[in-house]
Amino acid sequence: MKWIHKYGASFCLIILLLVFWEIGAELLDLGFILPTPTDVIVKIWGLKEPLFLEHLPATFLIIIVGLSLSIFFGVGMAIWMSVSRTVEKTLYPLIISSQTIPIIALAPIFVLWFGYSIWSKVVVTILITFFPITVNTYDGLKATSKEYKEMLLTMGASKKDIFFKLQIPGCVPYFLSGLKVAVTLSVIGAAIGEWIGAQAGLGYFSRRMMTQFDGAGVFAPIVILSLVGIGLFLIVTLIEKNILKWRKTD
């Protein structure tokens, strides 16, 4: 009952939008541009083997590799900036500037550099996902209470003790918030990379269906990508609730 009370309104709105979509698409009768939700579901079911056994694993591998490298480099960069003012002044503007360049414009360059291998898509995913992880983790490390630091120093704590026992636990909520944003963006990054140049993957399949003017075929992998993003977000949310049990939630 608690779940229904919390998400019932959103669920009803989604159902209502799908009904309007179904009716509107039927009235317009432009299946190659705007297929009905039932057409998309039928397409997914009819193509379930290539979609789920070939293209979904290829996309999921890009997401996992890209996210893992983003976490590694993002957290490392955040820690480096938090301990060095010079590094912060040098890297922080570059990190901000990296987000002003359209990724869709860089993706073809990565294809030229790395070919149609997985790494051209992984680099696109990293560029999209490392920013929220880096910035949120850095903000968490810098948000440590000065009063707590001074208290630990008076008790004889070293800088190492303060870092591992105060700053790291304090930045975990910030890191997880950034990760929730990153996991959804990772799906977009993987799809963009596959759309530009790939031999397998949901983004590649959507582009291939577009060249065949198959509207339902274009929407089918998009629906799966959306469900993957939602699933990853829920996983991080579940991890957050288990790690941060002390934090009050509604």
TrEMBL record:
Transmembrane segments: 58-79, 91-116, 122-141, 174-198, 218-239
PROSITE patterns: ABC_TM1
Superkingdom of the source species: Bacteria
Family the entry assigns: Belongs to the binding-protein-dependent transport system permease family.
InterPro entries: MetI-like (IPR000515), MetI-like_sf (IPR035906)
Annotated localization: Cell membrane
Record's protein name: ABC transporter permease
Pfam family, one: BPD_transp_1
Domain ABC transmembrane type-1: 56-240
Membrane topology: Multi-pass membrane protein
Gene3D superfamilies: MetI-like
Keywords on record: Cell membrane, Membrane, Transmembrane, Transmembrane helix, Transport
